[in-house]
Design brief:
3 strands, alpha/beta, single chain
Length: 110
């Protein structure tokens, strides 16, 4: 649990809440969510990232990209036309927008 994350190098572990933010000297954030990147989960991540000075954000979701594609009604074939994970790539772009710089780094994984 939390002890293992701290031993692995985590500097801070906070509640998943719109009232949280990173410290000025914390440029990196990792979010681990069991839910889809939709609705309240998106709102909370947006709020935290927007209130922080992150330059690097990684999101791990317990919901597969295939399920995200169905939820967002991604047209069949859209995956083949791009590099693959359309919904995750779009969320990475949103993360960069919320961080305030499209050159910052964002990644979404399942």
């Amino acid at each position: 649990g939390m002890e293992a994350l701290l031993q692995a190098g985590a500097l801070n572990i906070k509640e998943f809440s719109s009232f949280e933010s990173g410290e000025a000297e914390q440029p990196k954030a990792v979010f681990v969510v069991s839910t889809a990147l939709k609705d309240q989960t998106v709102v909370i991540i947006r709020d935290i990232v927007s209130l922080s000075r992150f330059q690097y954000c990684v999101v791990f979701t317990g919901v597969s990209h295939a399920v995200h594609s169905q939820m967002y009604n991604t047209p069949p074939g859209a995956e083949a036309e791009s590099s693959g994970l359309v919904v995750f790539e779009q969320f990475e772009e949103k993360l960069c927008q919320w961080m305030g710089n499209m050159n910052y780094t964002a990644a979404v994984h399942h």
